[in-house]
């Protein structure tokens, strides 16, 4: 093969002299020289693989850092429905609870009031039922009017409604004779305790426990605007972390409607099952989103992409019969064994795939 010979341009020395002068203006940048061609024998060129550069529809996976959190739809901050003081804690952090299971007792005056109201209304119902039975007998013997019988029936119906209301209140608020029972609204695990025995609680406002179902989690990611168009609800996701033996399948369930002005990102929620509760809230993981939608991209085989002494990517382009030129490219990510080229090549050009390393060796010898 011929060794390259380089000759200095006649104006090179003049430009250098001018540049050394303090008062001389800087010369304009020299125009980029055309790529240097080199040749290989035909029998060696026959071993090369040529690939025509073309634009194809691709799905570009998106790797983003993310953080595990509880599934808010399966998480509950439990609050009491009566005022009082915590009497006794019946569960602790880490305990698994059933829906309706008592969590703690509350010493509450409202509890005694609710039970007293139930007792009073039950007694009134029993009395109204007795009166109704008597009035029915009297009515059969023509001793009272129909209107009086209907009033007795109405009194029984009203008493039953009062008793049912009292029972519902006792059941929902967990009240008893001076002690209220706070019950878990869902099945799950006690992940946090917010009160201690003896502390006061207010109805509807004091959080006592946080209960969550760890079998399902959310993974929250933050996307920049440029990546947002690649992601949509329903896209499959792989969750990767060293604590998992294999990637965990998940799915995009929500894309935020507003931009965070501090981070300039948009939240994306990913839902996943969590067998065995391996992933914990607060953990950092990698989320690989595989968009269902495609986009057009220029592809070359991964074997065609090489690196020069400055670690910049380049390919060898066929310039003629057994003639090749090194061409730097703007390299994107890899997709299914191919590399996306964002610039530096044009559709229809031919690049060397298999055998590119041989060309680089031969090229370096000539250089």
3D structure, described in words:
This protein is of the alpha+beta class and 367 residues long. Among the domains are: 94 residues, conserved putative lor/sdh protein from methanococcus maripaludis s2 fold, CATH 2.40.420; 89 residues, Efflux pump adaptor protein, beta barrel domain (Elongation Factor Tu (Ef-tu), domain 3); 52 residues, Helix Hairpins (Orthogonal Bundle). It contains six helices and 24 strands. It has a six-stranded antiparallel barrel with strand order 4-13-16-15-14-17. The protein has a four-stranded antiparallel β-sheet with strand order 1-21-20-19, covered by helices on one side. The chain has a four-stranded antiparallel β-sheet with strand order 3-18-23-22, with no helix packed on it. Helix 3 runs antiparallel to helix 4. It starts with 11 loop residues before the first helix and ends with a helix. The N terminus is likely disordered.
Task: Briefly characterize the structure.
The chain has helices at residues 12-20, 42-45, 109-140, 146-173, 225-228, 356-366; strands at 37-39, 50-52, 54-58, 62-70, 75-78, 84-89, 96-97, 102-107, 179-183, 188-193, 200-201, 209-212, 216-224, 236-240, 248-255, 265-273, 284-289, 295-301, 306-307, 313-320, 323-328, 330-335, 338-343, 350-352.
Q: List the helices and strands in order.
A: HEHEEEEEEEHHEEEEEHEEEEEEEEEEEH
CATH topology of the domain at 37-58 and 295-366: conserved putative lor/sdh protein from methanococcus maripaludis s2 fold
Q: Structural class given helices, strands, pairing? A: alpha+beta
Q: Helix coverage percent of residues? A: 10-25%
Task: Please state the CA-atom Rg, rounded to the nearest Å.
Answer: 40 Å
